[in-house]
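Model: Ready when you are.
Researcher: Fold this.
Model:
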Amino acid sequence: MKEGKYIVKGKIYSVDSALIPIQNPYILIARHIDDYPEGNGQMAPAIFPENWQRGNDFTSGRGWNMYHGDDVPGFPAHPHRGFETITYAKKGFIDHFDSHGNHGRYGNGDVQWMISGKGLQHAEMFPLLETKEKNPFEIVQIWLNLPSYKKMVPPSYKLRWHEDTPIVPLANKNEDKNFLKILAGHYYDVYAERPEEHSYGFEEENHINIWDGKLEKGETISIPSFPEDVKVQFYVGEGKFKTDETFIERNSLLIYTSDREVTFTAEEDAEFMVFIGKEIDEEVYAYGPFVMNTREEILQAYEDFQKDQFGGWPWETDAPTIPPEKGRFSVYDKGTKTKYPPEEKQTFNT
């Protein structure tokens, strides 16, 4: 990519699948968009697809996927160790269950932040709650690495309701079309809730920022400067942007470093996300659901999981769901505390 007035070092990557080619300190970012049909009252599709591979349905071509679900779409119980998962449920709902007794339902803009640490199993199911209309669905799941001294920290799980997410207007008009949601970190002097102390994002010098925004054609966003070892990763999901002489098209990811503020102008109505973070200067050895530093640590992770299942699995099925009539809630701190969204106090027996 041509070096411009603002970009010091940068490269544009094409995004041609659900996986966004993210870089250190992030391990993986996946954007799942599914046009789910009406539900059958049991949170499964009203009409099941024909000729599909049950339990492994990722590229169906029908506009929606079952993923690893047999009845309800989603990801039944599976383990993690050594990193954090940050799940942004933009549209639709997710039912979470884990091996520590935590569970809950979130969606339509909520964020789940889970630190797998030394080991945790969880299930993420996508209940189709609407029975008379379609169930549009979009999530962005982010795997954030942990440095070696944090890889074996105690696991934790927290939900952040969309009602509490800071939103920064980016223009003096149409605030619903020109805004920035601060999912993690801060945008200048507007701060999101600070992560748990075991998170890589807890220390401000790691500059973990995750933003989601929209802009109308002709409007701009300015991204502040960061140290040289901090990458700004600017993903364009819809529309088109320009900065200096560089254009970032739809389904593209610009990764750059800069010692000064960079301004992006929307060439079309646009939707975008920004992922920022300081590199973790360590070897990464990842295999399946585990992200460690060495092969030996991966082998140990599999051995430990076989011994105790990372706390076992206290639920009756590996693909549990919340009853369809329940709203959003979170049971956390090993199942001892319950939290509801603002103005949404519901009855739920835990």
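Researcher: Now this one.
Model:
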Amino acid sequence: MKGGKTMAMNTHFRVRADVVRWIIEHSDFDQLTEEWQLRILRWLEKDVRPSVQQIKQVSDKLGVPFNYFFLSEAPVEDVPLLALRTIRGERKPSRNLTEVLLGMEEQQKELSSQRERQGFGFCRFLGGGVGSHEEPKVIAMKLLERLGLYHDWVFQRDPQQRFESLQRALTKLRVVVMQSGFVRDDAARQLDPDEFRGFVMLDDFAPLIFVNANVTWSEKLVVLAHETVHAWFETSELFDASDELRQDFRDWEQERQVYNVTRALLLGSYL
């Protein structure tokens, strides 16, 4: 068995040029050493066939799924939230961010289908604030009432305690809250908090909020509160450390409202 595995890893395979180009464009290729970049660029030559072991090494280094290298055409990854980054002209998303989004989307679809089969109704929390033009403090008060936190929230000052209270309240309303600091149980692939702090993915049965765990409890609380408000207004969002009012002009009024309600929620200005 061991000998067969070694033989398989030494097998050489022609990686299609369009697949190689896609991998270069959609990965952290520019962060590799020049030596590794040149090795991969050589795969574009017709007569070059890397071994399966070499493909595995590149897969690990770039964070690109191993099976992508054996496709007959370039892969297609449909990640709607990444369009927000494209609109704002930021650097291309890392493979870590892309894979976290894909992984959460996969889990959300599975849970959503399960809940629908089991006869769950739509998540009534989602969109509760749509169409509201009230003062931010009034919206924050109504949001806390819907979460069942109005009487306790103001007396809590520890950010971890507030985060956990908000997480429990959202879970009771069937909003999924996930947090992690790395990709798919791989501690070597740390999520960069400078790239993103969290996101919210809408779904009728299983709306999902993800929080990057590689920040302080105070910062995680801000992210969870911010994404909770987005869910209340029924808008998807990918949040980073400088997101406050820096959205595309088309979304500026909406983001300003979310920011103001989040601020009221956290500071208690609804009292």
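Researcher: Key takeaway?
Model: Residues 95-117 form the longest helix (23 residues).
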